[in-house]
Amino acid sequence: MASTTRDTALIDSPDLTVRHVDLKRWMCQHYPEQRHGFLFSRSERITHPFISLETGRPCWSERLALKSALEQSKRQLRELQEKHDALLKQSSVIPACAQCSISDRAEATYLNIIGGMLELMLGQSPSGTPYSSFKRRRPSSTHWSPITVASWGSRSGH
Could you report the per-residue pLDDT of 57-78, keeping only the tens digit for each? Predict the structure, then answer.
């Protein structure tokens, strides 16, 4: 049986042996990030040398909180996707207004309403007082559609 000795002359000796526990302690002290399989068990290699139980608990609690938040977000995403799918199905059943044709009478009514609103916002009384306190702005094709401009012009007498 070998014994531990502090004789420095034995360092160069071929009979020098190092005990497993001594090598393990030396590796932990000088190379704590390296955990070789021949020296450390699987559980010793998995555990991090710098994470203690005190620092691990808050990390674990934070992990659980994040995991819970992730599950809640996934649940909300599924609900929103279901609502989106329902709206898509509903929109395929109900035709869009652009696809529905309106009668000439309805179009004339809409144009008169828009023209009246423009007259109220941009027009002036016979004495020249503006109906609105907003500054007058000439309609242009970049701001108004041609139908609205035509309707506004016919209503205001311009």
Answer: 888 899 999 999 999 999 999 9
